[in-house]
Specification:
The complex is a heterotetramer of chains A (293), B (593), C (408) and D (241). With 293 residues, chain A is mainly α. Chain A is 75% helix and 3% strand. The radius of gyration of chain B is 29 Å and the shape is elongated. Classes of the chains: A mainly alpha (293), B alpha/beta (593), C alpha/beta (408), D alpha/beta (241).
């Protein structure tokens, strides 16, 4: 019994860290731009497919390809914001970004289907299947690696936002766009960079997800929804919030799966989500840098 | 300057009847395929209209319409499976009703807590609710969602015709309800909530109740649509009715067509259905991709939705047709009659030992004061002295930690804001908070529709208030186009339309130049002449000196002086805490009256 | 042709006539149009596209190698008019209606029961036959549709062969656990199998039900480590099948037999698992090495050869099942000697012939005969996919227990 | 004004309309180095719109802006800040969830300000000792007067050559308004030119060199501050005194 509990907790934390990484970009975009990015999941899946391509074409190990993929996704996100989202918001309204990102998710999902087929894929190098046993608890090595990568990347993001001038200007733009502009911040640039960062993290998460889970173009919807849940649990716009939210989601799912039944992890997670909203509408960690939107 | 209803409403009504007539005979001429497309349009329209009641009018965007749709569908399906009713028409009717009731029950249960969330948080919470129900419907065997519920055919007639009429009826009902809501007090209240919920509450809109009613009505209609959808398909599984896709589709319909309008959702649903089933029907794998591209193209081509496009034309016409009106067009004759309502000694407002703390900090500390009926009183004090807190306490935004607030002969501390408004307490904010999306007239109309209980014609009230604030000529302008000074007047007019007995005005002269300040003071005097008591918080000492009968001075949460303006201005304690140097009276001309 | 144009105009949309291209393309005089939908995008499109490929290959063969279908001395070409339903039942129903309006007489099925059932209700009402290889839920067949025929047996009968195999193993499989997705096909299979398993005296340790959306299965896997059954039966779709297998491997959770209802028959699925795919058992409804004769292709081998020469998409039993839908129509039309839908329907119901797929015979409810058209049990072995049960068609011996993950 | 000396800022014929509603029709004025001018007028006269055009927040529909003889019309605000024009906007617009020192750091975000960050910080803390005491406090938790100080301090951190103050006295109590006008002299003494937008006509005209009166989007009057104050006709018709 105790073993089962510990196993569930460990599984939850390991899974949760990846969920955090997957959602942190969603949170950043929501916090800084006030945009609910319905195409976030599709960016994650993009990362997974890029890892697949890297492995199949030049035999590049997904973990080695990760920085490269994150860089590519940064570019994609940067251009996406600059040339699609920003003009749409300027032309119509902030709300129109909902339609645009929805449309992009549809387009990319179906583009992936055309290019990569609708089949489920996964990117599993050999070490994905080795594991260690600690007492009664089994830990998969890939999950351990993914956990470490997720934590390090999120910590880096938190540090950038906290300490570096670029991070400070991102937070300033989130709090008050006009004020930031009057301080000399090129906010258009900041928005695009934030989007790029978000996409880079999505891409990096996609690589890990591609290794841990089977994926198909249609998986994107699930990952966008996980983004919602994690952000609400932890609080929008902060790296620590996303980490906490992801871990919480992972642990809730694992415990539910182990003790309630494997059919209910999502149901319980969403229930906790709704309850959390009612009790602490801004998530566990409040909103560390998003303005009063 | 007429009520927005009237001629336009008649024209809309005639057009609506014509469309309805055409639709009613459609099955006689149209192919079954066309009827199926029409069904899809009507179904989508019913959903989007229902969604729009809460999302478009009140600004509460649900991402979880699938929750009500699925619940309605499953309730109806299970109902017809387990409760044997021989007559098929009756079976359908009962099942539909049960579907609608189940959905509205769910809304009633979750409505109160979930509607406290605002903005994206409400949207996400609703998404969560729909996902919970989806999981439960497949996980719990009572729902049979995992294997699905089959529904026996209810009609021997051609189903595409039969269900065309079912969906037509549904869409017409939904549209009628939405129209009735839109032009009722409920509708104005919901729109006021969308524009600014706090202000709405202050004007007397029972926001909690209205949101809940809107939510339940919306859920009822979505539940009905879901039940009809189930019967039309004949087979319900979790994946066919609890799809998040459906929730987002509804939002897309409303956004594309034009948010908050009556016809917008219908147009949006029509466009998407025609796109999906007719225009792109023959395309194979790329039809979803094309749909995405078209959605994005529409955002760029029609930035404010289809209805926005039409409205845009109309607005250009009016702007061209009527030149920007001159202000100062108000003659004395237009001034509302000033009932003789002399100052009395009766206290309109009485604070007894009022205190309020924030985390140990005493924002308001044992304040006692009284406002005489028909007087103008001013409260002054340094920034952070507690003036705003005091106003918030009196208007019900905050509850005191101790002490009592008496209004006329009633104790009011702890009462909700909208109740106070209906009892006759109004407030004008320092930073003007008009309903930007509404016209000047509609802004004031909201105040007139709610506000103090009584039975005066809201139109007349609105016109009177506009006249007093010298805004009559601008009544049709959108509030967003007014300059700051006019907005301040609009706020005052809106507050007056609530027929207050007591107006609390938070720095009405801040940011106004001397001319404008004088105009504002004239208006406040005019307000007092109607018998209304005025309570000002103001930094402009000249204005305070000229207008007030009594001045209260607060510093660090305590009342440090009170009395006639001249006495207070020479009080050393006041000079020390607030003025910095003795106030020069040389520049003040004799007080107005 | 002309009629359908007028229809399109009636809807008030000239664009429909231009872009609703399938009617416009139908230019040849003597054609038999096969209508229907397939999910080519969206969640179900992975298998949906396999079904589509099967249809296409068989139609191509009939037209190019047999010169079409001869009815009363006239040769008719087959023409596929399939559209993408994107797993949206409402879109599917509307577009099927369009085809009914434009005079399409014969229909093929979509993939997933949530689409097949509503669309079949429509064609049933119009008295037009539908032959499908994508809807297995019992509900489809308990409605007693007369015009709808499914290649596969209904879900609850699909694990009969598996249980027969367990029985033949003389007590080697004493315990089992079931993992099922909460959807009509998977849950139907699992529910149906429970009775057969009990009757066979096999203890069911646990039944795990997974939600239809993506979820983590580590809880299931760690539970399986604590109470390990001899056989793990997963009546799951391929995404869940892959995830369960991956996590069993990743945590070194060994079972003696791992059965996956959907997954191992798909080459991409096996490729993703690599060496861990070995030993997986699954329901095989068809396999290229069968030695059946066929009135059109001649034999299973010929069919397979033809298939591989005209398409790159790897064969699965879904592609073969879909091809069979086409040849069933051809056979039934020839038997009936007419294109009258009622007569063709009767001929379909009366079919009883050997095809490249096996003996074709439908039950009175329209599903494939559970014995004749039911599954055989196959296993992924180093030599390829080998049939291991029933013995008379077996190509190899069942490897039992399968090697531990860690020792591979 | 005076020929020969080229002005620091030269605005000629500025115009702007919101959605077709004209806010500024034709506004021209100049600011010389280390000079303080005021823009006066009723609400809706176009003062705030004018300074937003100077700061690059709004692009002029017509007209020309020269700063230090360079054309800066329609440059984005971050470029304007880089050149040395800083706007302290109406309503302060601080970053309420960031600390005082982070607000000041952001004030020095421009490249021109980064190298002189330490010097400027010292200068600002000398000017506003309260801010030095509260440098770790969140900006949003300070009182109105302190927030206004911080807003001006943040503007000064940008190392500006021209500081534009939009309604700095709004919402301040009389005592603090006095302090504020005292401060304006100090800022001028640093050699920084000033544009002051104010409703507080008397005190403003006391401290500025010249003032421009705007009415319905046009400059209708201009001249030295004290002259305007003394001119009776001006007082009556334009300042409404």
């Amino acid at each position: 019994m105790l073993d089962r509990l510990f196993q569930a907790l460990v599984d939850g934390v390991l899974q949760g860290s990846v969920l955090s990484l997957a959602a942190v970009g969603f949170s950043l975009i929501f916090g800084v731009l006030g945009v609910i990015n319905l195409s976030h999941g599709v960016l994650i899946i993009l990362g997974a497919y890029l890892a697949l391509v890297a492995l199949r074409t030049i035999g590049l190990d997904p973990l080695l390809a990760l920085p490269l993929i994150a860089a590519i996704c940064f570019g994609v996100g940067y251009l996406y914001q600059r040339f699609l989202i920003s003009p749409a918001i300027r032309r119509a309204s902030l709300l129109s970004s909902l339609l645009v990102t929805y449309g992009v998710a549809l387009i990319l999902q179906n583009l992936f289907t055309l290019v990569f087929s609708a089949d489920n894929q996964s990117v599993r190098p050999d070490y994905a299947n080795s594991f260690d046993r600690f007492g009664g608890i089994t830990v998969n090595r890939l999950q351990l690696i993914a956990f470490a990568i997720s934590c390090v990347l999120i910590a880096i993001l938190a540090w950038v936002l906290r300490r570096l001038p670029i991070g400070r200007s991102i937070r300033a733009t989130a709090e008050h766009e006009l004020a930031a502009r009057l301080c000399g911040v090129d906010t258009d640039q900041i928005y695009a960079i934030s989007f790029g960062l978000s996409a880079a993290f999505a891409g990096a998460a996609g690589v890990l997800i591609g290794m841990l889970f089977p994926f198909a173009p249609s998986s994107q919807e699930d990952w966008t929804i996980f983004g919602f849940v994690v952000v609400v649990l932890g609080g929008a716009g902060s790296a620590a919030g996303a980490l906490l939210g992801g871990l919480l989601l992972g642990i809730i799912s694992a415990l539910t799966g182990a003790f309630v039944g494997p059919a209910y992890p999502n149901a319980v997670a969403f229930l906790v989500l709704v309850l959390m909203l009612l009790l602490r509408p801004h998530g566990l960690l409040g909103s560390a840098f998003h303005g009063s939107r | 300057m007429k009520r927005p209803l009237s001629r336009r409403a008649v024209r809309t009504g005639i057009a609506g009847a014509a469309v309805l007539g055409a639709l009613a005979v459609l099955p006689l001429i149209a192919s079954p395929f066309a009827l199926r497309v029409a069904q899809t349009i009507l179904f989508g329209a019913a959903l989007a209209i229902a969604w729009n009641i809460l999302g478009g009018f009140a600004g509460y965007w649900s991402f979880g319409s699938a929750a009500f749709l699925g619940l309605g569908a499953f309730t109806a399906a299970l109902m017809q499976e387990h409760v044997q009713i021989a007559d098929p028409a009756l079976r359908l009717a009962v099942a539909l009703a049960m579907g609608g009731i189940a959905a509205s029950l769910l809304a009633a249960i979750i409505g109160y807590p979930i509607l406290r969330l605002r903005g994206a948080y409400f949207s996400i919470a609703m998404l969560g609710v729909s996902l919970i129900l989806a999981e439960l419907s497949s996980g719990l065997d009572v729902f049979e969602g995992a294997v699905g519920v089959t529904i026996d055919p209810v009609t021997a007639a051609a189903p595409e015709r039969f269900f065309f009429y079912v969906f037509l009826a549904l869409a017409v009902i939904a549209l009628s309800i939405a129209a009735a809501v839109r032009y009722s007090r409920l509708g104005y209240g919901l729109i006021a909530i969308r524009e600014d919920e706090d202000t709405a509450r202050m004007l007397g809109v029972p926001t909690e109740r209205y949101k809940l009613v809107g939510f339940i009505v919306s859920a009822l209609l979505i539940g009905l649509a879901g039940a009809a959808y189930a019967f039309n398909l004949g087979y319900v599984t979790t994946s066919s009715v609890f799809r998040s896709q459906l929730s987002f589709d509804v939002v897309v319909y409303a956004l594309l067509g034009g948010m908050g309008t009556l016809a917008g959702p219908v147009l949006g649903a029509a466009i998407m259905a025609v796109l999906n089933q007719v225009v792109l029907g023959g395309l194979l794998q790329i039809h979803m991709l094309m749909t995405g591209i078209i959605i994005i193209a529409l955002v760029f081509l029609l930035p404010s939705g289809l209805m926005g496009l039409m409205r845009g034309h109309r607005r250009i016409l009016t702007v061209v047709g009527t030149p920007m009106p001159e202000e100062r067009a108000v003659t004395a004759a237009e001034q509302p009659p000033a009932p003789a309502c002399p100052q009395t000694d009766e206290a309109v407002l009485k604070l007894v030992g009022l205190s309020r703390q924030f985390r140990g900090l005493k924002a308001i500390d044992q304040i006692d004061l009284q406002l005489r009926s028909g007087s103008i009183s001013a409260i002054i004090g340094p920034n952070g002295a507690g003036k705003s807190t005091l106003f918030n306490l009196v208007t019900g935004y905050l509850a005191p930690n101790s002490g009592e607030i008496w209004y006329q002969r009633t104790r009011i501390d702890g009462l909700p804001t909208h109740r106070l408004s209906r009892a006759g307490i109004a407030r004008v904010f320092q930073i003007a908070r008009p309903f930007h999306g509404l016209s000047v007239y509609d802004n004031v109309l909201v105040g007139a529709l709610f506000g103090r209980d009584g039975s005066r014609d809201p139109h007349q009230l609105t016109m009177d208030a506009l006249a007093l604030a010298r805004l009559s000529a601008l009544a049709d302008q959108p509030a967003a186009s007014l300059p700051v000074g006019h907005l301040r007047r609009l706020e005052l007019a809106r507050a007056l339309a609530t027929r207050p007995r007591l107006v609390l005005a938070d720095e009405p002269c801040a940011g106004l130049n001397p001319t404008e300040t004088r105009e504002m003071m004239d208006m406040i005097q005019a307000v007092r002449r109607t018998g209304t008591t005025v309570f000002l918080a103001e930094h402009d000492m000249q204005a305070v000196m000229r207008m007030s009968d009594v001045v209260f001075v607060v510093a660090a949460g305590r009342l440090i002086a009170q009395g006639p303006p001249l006495d207070v201005a020479h009080d050393p304690a006041v000079i020390e805490a607030y003025l910095g140097k003795p106030f020069e009276l040389g520049s003040v001309s004799e007080p107005v009256r | 042709m002309l009629i359908s144009r007028r229809d399109a105009l009636k809807t008030g949309s000239a664009a429909a006539a231009l872009l609703g291209s399938d009617d416009v393309l139908a230019s040849a005089q003597n054609t038999i149009r096969l209508g229907g939908s397939v999910p080519m995008s969206g969640k179900e499109s992975d298998t949906g596209l396999n079904v589509l490929e099967g249809y296409k290959v068989a139609v191509k063969y009939v037209n190019e190698h047999l010169g079409g279908v001869k009815v009363a001395g006239v040769a008719y070409k087959l023409e596929l008019q399939l559209f993408d339903d994107a797993s949206d039942p409402q879109r599917a129903v509307t577009l099927i209606q369009k085809q009914l309006d434009s005079g399409t007489d014969f229909f093929l099925g979509s993939f997933s029961s949530a689409i097949v059932l509503p669309t079949a209700a429509l064609t049933e009402r119009a008295r037009r036959p539908m032959v499908q290889a994508g809807g297995g839920a019992d509900q489809i067949f308990t409605r007693h549709f007369r015009y709808m025929f499914g290649i596969y047996p209904r879900a609850s009968r699909q694990l009969v062969t598996l249980v027969e195999m367990f029985k033949s193993m003389h007590g080697q499989v004493r315990t089992c656990a079931i993992v099922a997705t909460n959807d009509p096909f998977s849950k139907g299979q699992a529910d149906g199998s429970v009775e057969y398993l009990r009757a066979a005296g096999i203890q069911i340790l646990n039944t795990y039900r997974l939600p239809p959306t993506l979820t983590d299965v580590s809880g299931v896997v760690s539970d399986l480590r604590l109470r390990t059954p001899d056989a793990l039966i997963c009546t799951t779709h391929q995404e869940d099948s892959a995830l369960v297998t991956q996590q069993l491997v990743a945590t070194g959770t060994d079972v003696k037999l791992l059965f996956l209802a959907l997954g191992p028959e798909i080459p991409a699925f096996r490729a993703n698992l690599g060496k861990y795919a070995e030993g997986l058992t699954f329901n095989q409804y068809w396999k290229p090495t069968y030695r059946f004769g066929d009135p059109f292709f001649g034999s299973t081998a010929n069919y397979y050869n033809y298939y591989t020469t005209v398409t790159d998409r790897k064969e699965t039993y879904h592609t073969a099942g879909a091809s069979l839908c086409i040849t069933c129509y051809v056979k039934a039309i020839q038997d009936a000697g007419t294109l009258a839908p009622d007569k063709v329907r009767d001929a379909l119901a009366a079919l009883n012939y050997e095809s490249f797929y096996g003996q074709v015979k439908f039950t009175a409810d329209g599903d494939g005969d559970a014995v004749l058209m039911g599954a055989v049990i196959s296993q992924v072995q180093p030599s390829g996919l080998e049939v291991v049960f029933p013995p008379k068609v077996a190509t190899a011996q069942l490897v039992y227990p399968i090697p531990n993950w860690a020792t591979r | 004004m005076t020929a020969g000396v080229s002005p620091l800022l030269d605005a000629q014929g500025l115009a702007f309309a919101y959605d077709g509603v004209i806010a500024v029709e034709d506004v021209s004025f100049t600011v010389r180095a280390a000079e303080a001018i005021a823009l006066l007028g009723a609400n809706g006269a176009g003062k705030s719109t004018t300074v937003k055009m100077i700061a690059g927040v709004l692009p002029p529909a017509q007209g020309r802006l020269r700063f230090d003889a360079d054309d800066v019309t329609s440059l984005p605000s971050h470029r304007i800040v880089e050149l040395g024009i800083t706007l302290v906007p109406e309503g302060r617009l601080l970053f309420p969830r960031m600390s005082v020192s982070e607000n000041l750091q952001l004030g020095a975000y421009a490249r021109r300000a980064r190298h002189s960050y330490a010097v400027n910080l010292e200068r600002v803390f000398a000017l506003f000792p309260r801010l030095a005491e509260r440098r770790h406090q969140l900006a949003g938790s300070m009182s109105g007067g302190e927030q206004q100080m911080l807003a001006i301090a943040r503007g000064l951190m940008g190392n500006p050559r021209l500081l534009v103050l939009d309604e700095p006295s709004l919402g301040l109590m009389p005592k603090m308004v006095d302090d504020l006008f005292g401060l304006i002299g100090t800022i001028r003494a640093m050699g920084i030119a000033l544009i002051l937008v104010e409703q507080n006509v008397f005190q403003t005209l006391e401290v500025v060199d010249r003032a421009y009166v705007l009415e319905k989007g046009r400059v209708t009057l201009s001249g030295p501050g004290r002259d305007l104050l003394r001119d009776d006709a001006v007082r009556k018709s334009f300042l409404g005194l």
